[in-house]
């Protein structure tokens, strides 16, 4: 069957939105005084864009040093250590075992541990502040309202910090990173989400490394998007997924290679760099809930009995390049969604490839 007569969006995961553009020159074109100048802008050896500053209200071009303004840094180029806000939302990383063996978050524990980590006190490391939420959650309990809270926290502290690290549980981390990537529009600073498979309290935990590397990246490099750092890779937030529930290498990005790989050094994929934002940060906080996800399986019974009047959207996980059954029950259900003007997003169940509706008759 063809979906062109209905409201469908085909997601082609794996497409990079930036293509190695000259960030400073591109940003210069969006500021009239820079665009009309003879000098223009370029990435200096200290990692900043020549003449470009940000005063909390917008970009300014000052070929001479501008007092009271923050420099604009070139993406994926090391610069002087800045200030990082660590936002602790909950998750395994800060949990401890209760007498019955179950893990629970312990208010104040992880914040104290981070503030006393010797690794974060070393010369050349960014300054940091830990903001612990009053109600720490298991990420399985995360809701769109939690995403709104995180986005507002970043917005409220945006001008006071150079980068942000969100400590989060792993179960819904990829959902949070995807949501925030769409909520934080015109993002020009680094936002990294991380956590751990093992609690910080465990001697062999992966928590310390994930925290240290995330803070280092957020405070010494401009990576103007939402990303996930885990183990050795920095992944685009809306291309990452949890791939292993019991391994330290818990996250992957099957349709897009890492933004950076951290080994002895840092290997950035600079051709994946996003374009410079042309406006100030704006935050989308209106979120729809009641989204229905349907994974197609052989023999799926009729969906017509489902009450769709309270559904705000449907995600269809279809076969291959977006193929689905052509039986009357399924077609009638699609027509019902169309009649109710309920938007539908089509994705593939396959790990790699793209959605291409209409390739097959089915």
- Roughly how many Å apart are the termini? 4 Å
What CATH calls the topology of the largest domain is Rossmann fold
Number of domains: 2
* CATH architecture identity of the largest domain: 3-Layer(aba) Sandwich
* Arrangement of strands in the largest sheet: 8-5-9-11-12-13-16-17
Work out the helix count: 7
- Please mark out the parts with pLDDT under 50 across 5 or more consecutive residues, or reply none: 1-21
The average pLDDT is 88
The H/E string reads EHHEEEEEEHEHEHEEHEEEEEEEEEHE
Query: Per DSSP, what share of the residues sits in E-state strands of 2 or more residues?
Result: 25-35%
Please identify which CATH superfamily of the largest domain we are dealing with. L-asparaginase, N-terminal domain
Quick recap:
This is asparaginase. By secondary structure, the chain is α/β, with parallel strands linked by helices. The protein contains 7 helices and 21 strands.
Q: Topology of this structure?
A:
Blueprint: E1 8-10, H1 23-29, H2 32-35, E2 48-54, E3 59-61, E4 70-73, E5 83-90, E6 95-97, E7 103-105, H3 109-115, E8 127-137, H4 144-157, E9 163-167, H5 173-183, E10 184-185, E11 190-194, H6 207-220, E12 226-230, E13 233-236, E14 241-242, E15 251-252, E16 260-262, E17 266-268, E18 282-283, E19 291-295, E20 313-318, H7 328-339, E21 344-348
Describe this structure in words.
Belongs to the asparaginase 1 family. This is asparaginase. Keywords: Signal. InterPro entries: Asp/glu_Ase-like_sf, Asparaginase/glutaminase-like, Asparaginase_C, L-asparaginase_C, L-asparaginase_I, L-asparaginase_N, L-asparaginase_N_sf. With about 350 residues, this protein is α/β, with parallel strands linked by helices. The protein folds into two domains: about 75-285, Rossmann fold, CATH 3.40.50.1170; about 290-350, Rossmann fold. The protein is built from seven helices and 21 strands. The protein has helices spanning about 25-30, 30-35, 110-115, 145-155, 175-185, 205-220, 330-340; strands spanning about 10, 50-55, 60, 70-75, 85-90, 95, 105, 125-135, 165, 185, 190-195, 225-230, 235, 240, 250, 260, 265-270, 280-285, 290-295, 315-320, 345-350. The strands form six sheets. It has an eight-stranded mixed β-sheet, sandwiched between helices. It has a four-stranded parallel β-sheet with strand order 1-21-20-19, with no helix packed on it. Helix 4 crosses helix 5 (about 175-185). It is globular and about 70 Å long.
């Amino acid at each position: 069957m063809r979906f062109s007569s209905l409201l469908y969006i085909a997601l082609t995961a794996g497409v990079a939105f930036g293509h190695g553009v000259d960030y400073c020159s591109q940003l210069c074109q969006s500021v009239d005084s820079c665009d009309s100048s003879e000098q223009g802008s370029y990435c200096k050896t200290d990692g900043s864009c020549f003449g470009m500053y940000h005063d909390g209200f917008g970009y300014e071009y000052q070929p001479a040093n501008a007092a009271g303004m923050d420099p604009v840094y070139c993406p994926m180029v090391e610069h002087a250590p800045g200030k990082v806000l660590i936002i602790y939302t909950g998750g395994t990383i800060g949990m401890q075992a209760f007498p019955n063996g179950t893990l629970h978050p312990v208010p104040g524990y992880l914040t104290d541990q981070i503030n006393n980590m010797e690794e974060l006190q070393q010369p050349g490391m960014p300054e940091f502040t830990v903001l612990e939420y009053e109600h720490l959650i298991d990420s399985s309990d995360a809701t769109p309202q939690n995403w709104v809270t995180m986005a507002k926290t970043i917005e409220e502290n945006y001008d006071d910090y150079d980068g942000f690290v969100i400590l989060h549980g792993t179960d819904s981390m990829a959902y949070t990173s995807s949501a925030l990537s769409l909520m934080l529009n015109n993002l020009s600073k680094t936002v990294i989400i991380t956590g751990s498979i093992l609690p910080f309290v465990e001697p062999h935990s992966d928590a310390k490394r994930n925290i240290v590397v995330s803070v280092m990246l957020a405070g010494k490099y401009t990576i103007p998007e939402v990303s996930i750092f885990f183990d050795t890779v920095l992944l685009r937030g809306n291309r990452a997924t949890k791939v292993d529930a019991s391994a330290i290498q818990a996250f992957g990005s099957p349709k897009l290679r890492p933004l950076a790989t951290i080994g002895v050094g840092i290997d950035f994929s600079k051709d994946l760099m996003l374009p410079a934002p042309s406006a100030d940060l704006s935050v989308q906080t209106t979120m729809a809930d009641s989204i229905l996800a349907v994974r197609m399986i052989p023999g799926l019974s009729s969906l017509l009995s489902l009450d769709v009047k309270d559904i705000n959207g449907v995600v269809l996980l279809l076969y291959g390049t977006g193929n689905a059954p052509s039986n009357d029950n399924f077609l009638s259900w699609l027509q019902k969604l169309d009649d109710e003007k309920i938007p539908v997003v089509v994705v593939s169940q396959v790990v790699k490839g793209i959605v291409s509706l209409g390739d097959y008759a089915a």
